[in-house]
Amino acid sequence: MGVLFRTGYPLRILLSLCGEWMGRRGLPRSLVPGSPPRRYRKESLPALEVPVLPVTATEIRQYLRAHGIPFQDGHTCLRAPSPFLRDSQLKDQTDAPTSFSLFINKTTGRFLCMTSLAEGNWEDFQASVEGRRDGDSEGFLPSEAPEAEDSEEIRRIWDRAVPLWELPELEEAQLARMMFGLTKVTDDTLKRFSVRYLRSARSLIFPWFSPGSLGLRGLKLLEAEGQGDGVHLVETTIPRPGAYHNLFGLPLISRRDVEVVLTSRELDSLALNQSTGLPTLTLPRGTTCLPPALLPYLEQFRRIVLWLGDDLRSWEAAKLFARKLNPKRCSLVRPGDQHPRPLEALNQGLNISRILRSALPAWHKSIVSFRQLREEVLGELSNVEQVAGVRWSRFPDLNRLLKGHRKGELTVFTGPTGSGKTTFISEYALDLCTQGVNTLWGSFEISNVRLARIMLTQFAVGRLEEQLEKYDEWADRFEDLPLYFMTFHGQQSIRTVIDTMQHAVYVYDICHVVIDNLQFMMGLEQLSTDRIVAQDCIIGAFRKFATENSCHVTLVIHPRKEDDDKELQTASIFGSAKASQEADNVLILQDRKLVTGPGKRYLQVSKNRFDGDIGVFSLEFNKSSLTFSVPPKSKARLKKIKEDSGLVAKKPSSGKKGAMPQNSETC
After folding, report:
1. d(CA 190, CA 206)
2. Which of 455, 441, 472 lies closest to 41 in space, CA to CA?
C-alpha cells in the first residue's frame, strides 16, 4: 500500500543520506532471512469457512438463556462469562464488568476471550458448554500468533531499530522527520506510542503489542521511497497481511475511555492524539478491510469517529465500516479541502478538534432532505474521477467507455459458448483485485483449482509450468491479493449464494462479487415452474444485494441460441428483458469466427447507466498468458457510438482519410 506525501524539499535533499536500499520488502539484506523451505498448504488460497450460514443473534440469545448463561447485549457482540479461564485468571476477575470477558459476535457467532485470548466458532462454544470437550479449554488455540520464523524477524528488526530522538546525528533525525511529515510531532508523542526508526531501511517502525500485555506480536514498517519531487510511503507488515490483526495504539486505551477516533494510517493517529488527547487507534489494513476479529476491542466505546483519509475511497470505506461497527454510535469526517488527513491538518495548523466536532452521524432516517444530501452531492461534483470508480490498468479501452468500476452496480456479461467468457472475466476481476478491490468469486462451472490456475497464469503473464522454480515467488504474491472463492460447484439455490455473499461482505469487506454463471442457480429454484420467472427473481435478488451492500456484482449469463453468423445483441441475453433492465452495465463478448482461422473477438459495451457511453473495441487473446489485455501490433481502434446508432460499428477502412466516423477515437 503506497501513500504519496508531498513536501517542500527537493528529493535530492530528502534522500541525500540514503544508503544502500536492498532486500525483500525494502528491508536491508542483513535482516532478510534465508529462503525458507517450501511448506505444503492444503488450501493455497483463502476460502470461506463452512458452514456458510451464520448463526443469528436471536439464536445465540436463546441458547445462552436455555443454558442459564448470563450475558450483556453490546453494539456488535454479546458479553458473557468465559469458560476458558484458569483458576488464577478467575481470581483476578472480582468485579462484574471484567468477569464478562467472553465476546460473541452477533453476526458470525465467533467468540473471543479477552483474558485468555482463546477464540473459536459458534460450534466450538456449544461443544464447550455441552461438555463435549470435557471442560478443557486447552483445546482452543489463543488468538492467532505469529509463526516462529516471523517472531524471530520481528524481534530482530525491533532490536535494531532506535527511537528518533536517540539518533546520533541531528541532521539525520531532521531528515527522517521531513520525509515522514513529523516536523510537528513531538518526541513525547513518539515515545508514548513506542515508535522507532530503522536506519538501514529508512523506515519507521510501528509496533503491535499483545492485548493486555506489552508482548510484541507484530510490526508495520513505513518505508520512504522517492517519487518525483515527493516521497512515496510503502507499508510492510510482519506477519504478512491477513495472518494477524491488531490495532496500533491499543495498549494506551483504558477501560474508562468511551470515545475513540479510528484512522487508516499510524501517522494520523500520532497527530490526532497529540492535538486532542483523545484515544486513537489505527486499522491494520487501512481502508481495505476491518476484520471482525477486532470488533471486541472496540465494544467499550459509545462513540466512534472514523477519519480514514481525504479521498472518496476513504469516505466509502468509512461508511462501510460504520455499518459493521453499528452506525448509531459512529460519526464520519467527510473528506474535503478543510478536512485533510489528520497529519496534514496538524502541519497546516488547522483546528483538529473543530474538524472532529463537524463529523457527520453515520445513522440517518429512511427519508432525507436535500439539505442532508447537499455535502455528498458537492463531494461527487468535486471528485469526478474518483466517483467514476477504480480504473482498469489492463483495459484502457474499457476505461474510455465505462470510466471505472463502481460499487453498488450490477454488470451483466454474456458471450457465445466457447468464446472465452470465464477467461476474460477472470482477468477483468484480477485487474481490479490487484488494485485493492476485495473480490469474491463464485465459479459454479469450473473448479476453484482450475480457476486459480488461470488467474495465477494471468497474474504472472506467462505459463508457470515452464518455470516451476518461480512458482513460490508468484504464488506468495498472488496469495497477498484480497481474493476469495466460494466453495460451491454445480447447481446452488439463490438463497444459499446470497447468504454466502452477505457473510463475505461482513467478514472480508468484499466490494466485487463475480457469479459464473446464473444458469447454475435456476435448477434448484422452486419459485415457479416458469424458468423465465425464476430467472427474473434471481436477477432481482442480485440487484437488491448490490444496492443494499454497496457491492458491485458481475453476473455471467449465457445467451440465447443464435446463428453463428449473427452478432449478439442486448436482446440475445437468455430470459426476459429484466436482466438488461436491472443491469447498470451490459458487456457482450463478440466472437466473429472465420472459416480460414480463429476469427476476431470484440468486447461490446451495449449499456452504460453511469454516463451513457457505449461502444466496441477489439481484443487479442494471448494463449501463453491466457490474457486478452496484451496490446496488438497495430493500434486498436475504439469506436464510441450513440445509443440510437446501432450496436456495433462497421469495421474501419485500412487508412483512407474520412473512413472513421466523426465520433470515433483512436486509442
Report:
1. 10
2. 472
Residue 331 CA to residue 360 CA, distance in Å, equals 5
Give the containing element (helix H, strand E) for 473: helix 471-479
Average pLDDT over residues 30-46: 36
> What is the per-residue pLDDT across 199-241, written as a single tens digit (0 to 9) for each?
988 899 999 988 766 688 899 999 988 777 778 888 999 888 7
| Run of H or E residues at 115 | none
Q: Which residue has the cell 491479493?
A: 481
pLDDT of residue 75: 93
Task: Tell me what the mean pLDDT of segment 128-134 comes to.
Answer: 70
Its pTM stands at: 0.75
User: Which three cell numbers, joined as nine digits, stand for 436?
Assistant: 485493492
CA distance 451 to 591: 22
Beta-sheet pairing, 196-198 with 203-209: antiparallel
pLDDT class of 250 with cuts at 50, 70, 90: very high
Per-residue pLDDT reduced to its tens digit, 326-364: 999 999 998 877 889 999 999 999 999 999 999 988 876
Residue 610: other Cβ atoms inside 10 A: 16
Report d(CA 188, CA 477) in Å as an integer. Answer: 38
Q: What is the pLDDT of residue 28?
A: 42
| Cell 466536532 belongs to residue | 357
Strands, E, within 228-288: which ranges? 230-238, 259-263, 280-282
Helices vs strands, H then E, count in the chain? 21, 25
Largest Cα–Cα distance in the chain? 90
Q: In sequence order, what E strands does 422-476 have?
A: 439-443
Q: What is the pLDDT of residues 504-540, one digit of tens each?
A: 999 999 999 999 888 777 765 554 557 788 888 899 9
First to last CA, the chain: 30
Record the cell numbers describing residue 421, joined without a space.
467468457
Does the structure show a pLDDT above 70 at 112? yes
Q: Is 366 helix (H, G, I), strand (E, B) or coil?
A: coil
**436: phi > 0 → left, psi -120 to 50 → alpha, else beta; which?**
left
As given in the structure block, the three cell numbers for residue 484 are 476469495
The pLDDT tens digits of the residues spanning 267-320 come to: 999 999 999 999 999 999 999 999 999 999 999 999 999 999 988 889 999 999
Share of the chain above pLDDT 70, in %: 77
Backbone angles phi, psi at 450, to 5 degrees: -65, -40
CA dist 384 → 163, 279, 300, 311, 389 (Å): 42, 34, 38, 11, 9
C-alpha cell at 218: 507484530
333 burial (CB, 10 Å; 0-12 / 13-18 / 19+) is: buried
Q: If we measure between CA atoms, which residue out of 478, 483, 474 comes closest to residue 440?
A: 483
* Helix pair 471-479, 448-460: axis angle to 10 deg: 110
CB 133 within 8 A of CB 127: yes
Residue 209's H or E segment, with its range, is strand 203-209
CA separation (Å) from 144 to 153, 215, 504? 17, 14, 20
Check if the beta carbon of residue 529 is closer than 8 Å to that of residue 569. no
CB 161 within 8 A of CB 198: yes
Our measurement of the distance from residue 642's CA atom to the centroid of its chain's CA atoms, rounded to an integer in Å, reads: 35
Residues 6+ apart with CB under 8 A from 76: 105, 106, 107, 295, 298, 299, 324, 325, 326
Say if CB 200 and CB 162 are below 8 A apart. Answer: no
Among 414, 270, 406, smallest CA distance to 343 is for 270
